[in-house]
Write a structure and sequence with these properties.
By secondary structure, this protein is α/β, with parallel strands linked by helices. The protein contains eleven helices and 21 strands. The radius of gyration is 22 Å and the shape is globular.
């Protein structure tokens, strides 16, 4: 299920995107109160936006805009809305997205071709280890995508290692859709309960929500720990509610492939200028073919590298690197700029650390302070020294360490109504 456009030349891909962009802008200018206002205020004639480069004439859309003017982005009457979803609210108040029948079809197509990117086919059986309720788009996307692909899907939901292994034993899934750190919990449960996890039907995992690779595409600590224990194929995938599109790795493992018929992607600096390919930039998207709540030049807050050379798999589309961090989560600590994933990678590499939460707050002199809540079997000065030595070696600074029980960490990681585990708490003023 490889879309023909993904193997076309760069010029052919660009030509298709520009045609679809003009159609989307015509629809938006007629139906979106928010963009009607923006176009009028800035004297923008959408009919003069012909090329991808012309898009820069339109100001960017931010998360603050979505939160402040949520309803003004909706382009359809209420009786056309089939499904309501909300963002996770990681960086602010959740935003409601209205989806039409056409949008759900688009979502299913997106996830079907994303699964196919990993080698998936109708013979696959996916075990879904994420929620499909609580207005969560991702779980719904995986279900619809597997259905569109003609594959089987088992909706187990998040957590519950015992039920996950029981399902694997009884229903023989070939692939897992899960947060990768949960795979380590599955392995831990299996080892403690004599489950022969290396000899099951599972051959691969679609890893969501957390990076498993470094910027050079080598496995990071989390990815290495999984592979050391369980030699299944690991595929990264990156998506968000706002874009309703996924960037998923092929078997080359060299970045998530762009689906050009679904989305236009820019990589911008702090001044909304495009960055060079060797520079990290903020992922900024313009959706194509969205009916309920299309977005133009929406800055996601995610910082990534991108690559445009042809992939060995035959696709000629742009590839998105692992998320380095989220712009609003950037930490300035003792003269060093850090993103949470860099801290996670250090902590994942320390055997004495069983689980953790990274907390950032503003200290009495108005600068960022890092407190790491650690669950460890041994609570001693030696363990603190081991942790701080790792931080000094990797990032040249040492955060404050606080020991807490595994139960306390579990409560902190899974707050009420949260749809995915929390690793980062931002209490900065």
């Amino acid at each position: 299920m490889l879309p023909e456009i993904e193997t076309k030349s760069s010029s052919e891909i660009k030509s298709l995107q520009e045609k679809l962009l003009q159609e989307q802008l015509a629809y938006i200018s007629k139906n979106s109160k928010y963009y009607q206002r923006i176009f009028q205020q800035n004297g923008i004639d959408f009919e003069k936006i012909k090329t991808l480069e012309d898009l820069r004439k339109i100001s960017v859309t931010t998360k603050d805009d979505l939160q402040q003017f949520n309803d003004d982005f909706i382009c359809v009457p209420k009786n056309k809305i089939i499904d309501y979803v909300t963002t996770s609210g990681t960086l602010g108040d959740p935003v409601t997205f209205a989806m039409t029948e056409k949008d759900l079809e688009r979502l299913a197509y997106n996830e079907a071709i994303s699964f196919a990117t990993t080698g998936g086919s109708k013979s696959e059986v996916y075990q879904l280890m994420t929620t499909i309720d609580r207005r969560f788009m991702a779980g719904l996307a995986y279900f619809l995508g597997a259905r569109k692909l003609g594959a089987g899907i088992i909706r187990v939901g998040a957590g519950m290692p015992e039920l996950q292994w029981d399902t694997i034993r009884k229903m023989s899934p070939t692939a897992l859709v899960t947060v990768p750190s949960f795979i380590l919990k599955l392995i831990d449960f299996a080892e403690k309960n004599n489950v022969d996890y290396r000899n099951t039907s599972v051959k691969k995992a679609i890893c969501i929500g957390e990076p498993i690779r470094n910027s050079d595409y080598t496995l990071n600590t989390l990815g290495e720990k999984i592979k050391e224990k369980w030699n299944i194929e690991l595929f990264s995938t990156y998506a968000s509610t706002e874009m309703a599109t996924a960037f998923t790795e092929c078997q080359e493992g060299r970045g998530g492939h762009h689906h050009p018929e679904l989305i236009i992607v820019e990589f911008l600096d702090d001044y909304d200028n495009p960055v060079k390919e060797e520079e990290a930039g903020e992922v900024t998207i313009t959706t194509l073919g969205v009916e309920g709540m299309p977005l133009v030049r929406f800055k996601t807050g995610d910082i990534c590298f991108h690559h445009t050379e042809k992939c060995a798999c035959g696709r000629n589309t742009m590839r998105l690197g692992p998320v380095i961090g989220r712009k609003k989560q950037m930490i300035k600590y003792k003269g060093t700029t850090l993103f949470p994933p860099a801290l996670y990678d250090i902590l994942n590499n320390i055997n004495e650390v069983e689980n953790y939460i990274v907390e950032v707050f503003t200290n009495e002199i108005g600068t960022d302070e890092i407190l790491i809540h650690v669950a460890s079997k041994e609570k001693s000065d030696l363990v603190i020294k081991i942790i701080t030595d790792h931080f000094r070696a990797k990032v040249r600074v040492t955060p404050t360490i606080k020991f807490v029980s595994p139960a306390e960490i579990n409560v902190m990681q899974n707050p009420e109504m949260s749809r995915k585990p929390v690793k980062f708490i931002d209490k900065r003023e």
